[in-house]
Design a protein that fits this description.
The protein is an alpha+beta fold. It contains 2 helices and 4 strands. Strands 1-2 form a two-stranded antiparallel ribbon.
Length: about 100
């Protein structure tokens, strides 16, 4: 037998109103104050905001022996991605295509 998934799924158990369901569930948020998001304590930054006073701690690793920097896209890639070397330097497969 085929099932019509677009048909409403009403049963006898679904006859309770929303108000009756709300009465059964305790209102945990009533009386609480909206607190700042713990994941983002400083709020969110809008695009174009001045971030000049922000310091970033980044560890920069030098290119490894099996890597090269493509002179067309300037990305560090593995030697397996090397297509050829021209007068300017190494070119990756993606840039040579």
């Amino acid at each position: 037998m085929a099932t019509d998934y677009d048909a409403p799924r009403k049963t006898e158990d679904d006859s309770e109103s929303i108000e009756a369901l709300k009465e059964r569930v305790p209102d945990k948020l009533s009386g609480s104050v909206d607190v700042e998001d713990a994941d983002n304590p400083s709020g969110f930054e809008l695009p174009g905001a001045d971030l000049s006073d922000l310091e970033l701690d980044v560890v920069v690793l030098p290119a490894q022996e099996d890597e090269f920097t493509c002179m067309n896209c300037f990305l560090v890639k593995h030697r397996s991605q090397l297509d050829h070397e021209d007068a300017h330097g190494p070119i990756c497969i993606e840039c040579a295509a």
